[in-house]
Write a structure and sequence with these properties.
alpha/beta; globular
Length: about 260
Amino acid sequence: MLIVADLHIGLEYELSKAGVNIPYQTERIQGELVALCREHKPDRLVIAGDVKHGVPVTSFQEKRELPTLFEVLREVVPKIDVTRGNHDGNIQDLATKEVEIHSSKGIILGDDFKIAVFHGHAWPKAKALEADCLIAGHNHPTVLLRTPLGIRMTQRAWVKGVTEPGRLAKAFLEQDAVRYEGDPVVAFNDHYNAQIGAPEMILMPTFNDLLGGLPVNGEAPQSLLGPMLRRNALNTEDFEVYLLDGSYLGKVGFLREKNSY
């Protein structure tokens, strides 16, 4: 399975309206996805939201290029799934019939090892918290780095860590305005008929390298995007940060401390 997030096809059209003109990038992004599929030969491609960029209006660029993108991808991967992101209004009208569109609550994949994939702008379904691993986009995570000369730069990053069941359950119950007493994990399990675990959480970097990002070591956790972060469901200070090439940089809390110098 190959999972990517945040293609934001059509970003160039919005930039052009602001006076910034760059060549269309869809063919390049498409080529990178095709190359990955040919290299790794997945049976399934899952796009974790924000395939398109324009909201609330779909641009002519998206209408022209997205059907072709899906057709080309279907030639190299047998199955394509899309979990809706906050930019994916009317995505069903632009996808070919073989592409399966899922709600923003995500999908659960696997048998012995379960993975829940969702975009991250909305809470996943309660059953997703039974999974062994949660994978989300939406945050566009980056890491802020400083050189000895004081030069600041940001790099796209993977951010991953183990969740705390009590913290997850408490935040989930509160967002649904569920009243409970005692242990939030017991209350969650009873209310949703689910068995919440301690899944690993992976925040995915953007596939489109033209997008900006939020430095996880430069922003307060509540400033990051999505209800799981803003409702304090995750202790990101203990999450690990990796560059796209797999280089391990340290935990968010450590990198935040270094960034404050």
